[in-house]
């Protein structure tokens, strides 16, 4: 039995907003400023007699010169090791070198867990068609178990992520 889901991604893609939305509570601080989440934040979702533990991780960085960044990377990496499912959060409009680095970190041990790509901030995207080429490209980079366009802010498709998480138990 596992029941643990890690929310990972580069800074500012909306990981903490997603955790809060999944739990229906403000357990993690969200901010326009990157690096607001500095520690692992856990939240437990209980439904009936089953529980899912969600772990909000600090954003992973390429820049490891500062000690705080190294610490944050380590916290995020060790979160990934223990879980049965990873929700990899990206911004629907931009793919950066930091996203690429996070994706590469997810490759190690990927056979032992599910990896869901959550393409966030779709409320921001007026031209939904523009999303498709982007998603196809991402799907070629990694064998995601599922790809879900979401809005952590407005809640679009967050229920879908919750049911995937509950199925992964
Ligand atoms: P984190 O660093 O990945 O934890 O990102 P946060 O959850 O702190 O969010 C970073 C910024 O993105 C904040 O200003 C959020 O309000 C904003 N944000 C998060 N999710 C969404 C979303 O679905 N749509 C929009 N438009 N903004 C979002
Ligand atoms: Mg955060």
UniProtKB/TrEMBL annotation:
Bilayer topology term: Peripheral membrane protein
Residue span, Era-type G domain: 1-169
Region (G1): 9-16
A single GO BP: ribosomal small subunit assembly
Main location: cytoplasm
Region spans: G3: 56-59
Region (G4): 120-123
G5 as annotated region, ranges: 150-152
Residues given in the record as GTP binding sites: 9-16, 56-60, 120-123
Domain of life the protein comes from: Bacteria
Compartments where located: Cytoplasm; Cell membrane
Keywords assigned: Cell membrane, Cytoplasm, GTP-binding, Membrane, Nucleotide-binding, Ribosome biogenesis, RNA-binding, rRNA-binding
Assembly information from the UniProt record: Monomer.
Family from the record: Belongs to the TRAFAC class TrmE-Era-EngA-EngB-Septin-like GTPase superfamily. Era GTPase family.
Protein name, UniProt field: GTPase Era
Organism: Shewanella fodinae
